[in-house]
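pinned: reference chain
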Amino acid sequence: MNEVRIVHPLRGDPPSRPGDPLEPILEVDLVQPWFPLPALGRRIQTVTGQRPLGLAFETPGPRPVHALAAGSVEVRDSRLDDHGGISVRGSRAGGGYEAVVATRNLRISYLHLKRGSARAGPVRAGEVVGVSGNTGRCVDGSGRAFVEIEARSEGKLCDLSEFSLPIVVELRINGTPVGKPRPLPPGEVEFRGFRLERLIIDPERRPDLFRPGTENVLEVVLMRGPQRIARAETILKIT
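pinned: its structure tokens
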């Protein structure tokens, strides 16, 4: 389950006064991250001669491939390379040298990487996860470089475009939206100390936001496109 928590201000904190700063601080846990779709070279129909299960690219020579999401890397290798023509069927070479990044509820596989270019262990979004190559089953792949990316959730293949919508945080005070929605950084599933827009408590200029002498409802909402995926609220008291 996606969760967002307001850790400052907290219900029960001493009342604020007009002129005080207000900078909400959040903790966020996501089931799945968001990330822009990659552009790693020329998009191609197939690497293996069969319809790709994800996105397939031919790169201009060996190029670094960056992790779309943070997680833990597992390295796999079919230890077979097959660069035969399109007529070759039933190859067991598969994805060749692969790096699989496991997040909380997602496994992203990077296939056909240069052998030895990946390293098992933790990786952050945007860090190099391997180098494009031509390992495994690559149709007419000798001397060329490829990478194919697949994503699975609970064992089921995902459409990578499902993750391309940014997840944004909307702030509301007493039901009134405040500022512009702020996107969470891509590729991450955990945020601690995430700060929203800094405001000055000014009931005179913004009576719609700040109401002295009563409870003010501070609400944050996480949105992925048109879908609300989590929310939290707290009470802000103003003297």
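why pinned: DSSP finds no helices and 21 strands in the chain. The longest strand covers residues 227-237.
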